[in-house]
Amino acid sequence: MEPRQQGLLDKESLKEADEDMVSEVDLNNIYTEEEREEMENELTKLEEEITTLKQVLASKEKRHLELKQKLGITALSELRHNFNKSWNDMQTSTVYKKTSETLSTAGQRTSAAFSNLGTAISRKFGDMRNSPSFKSFEEKVESTVTNIKSKVGGTGGAGNFEEVLSSAAHASAQDTPTNNVTESSERSC
Length: 189
What we know:
This protein is 77% helix and 0% strand. With 189 residues, the protein is an all-alpha fold. The N and C termini lie far apart (120 Å).
């Protein structure tokens, strides 16, 4: 058979001879018998120590739980204590203090901005009320109210808006004979 060159990524499976060669490699022969025995002894000691430590830890955890029960410490009280401690630690941190100061300053500036905005809006309404357009509108409304009152049978003098509405409703009720129920309910109001 002709020898052929195989690459690292050859897709052919291992031959039987290759498998035999691999199985003959004995990794245990790397160490002497004495070194191997020493490592096995150390491994046994470590396993025993691990078992002992697990037993000691279990015993200490049991005693820990007993003491907590005797002192009346519950999981909830521990959680509350841990939360309070964490909250206190957070409040004393410099990051929290800086953030708190920044938010306080931002709140003060926002409050001042809204105050200035309210003042500006009030000033604009005052200016608008004193404008000729608003005065003209106000006069037209007063004139309309006076006309309505005089048509309804009112005195024609100045009255409040509720009186005008009431008299307009009363006049409307008198014009429509089917509104007797509405008329009596309006009078009781």
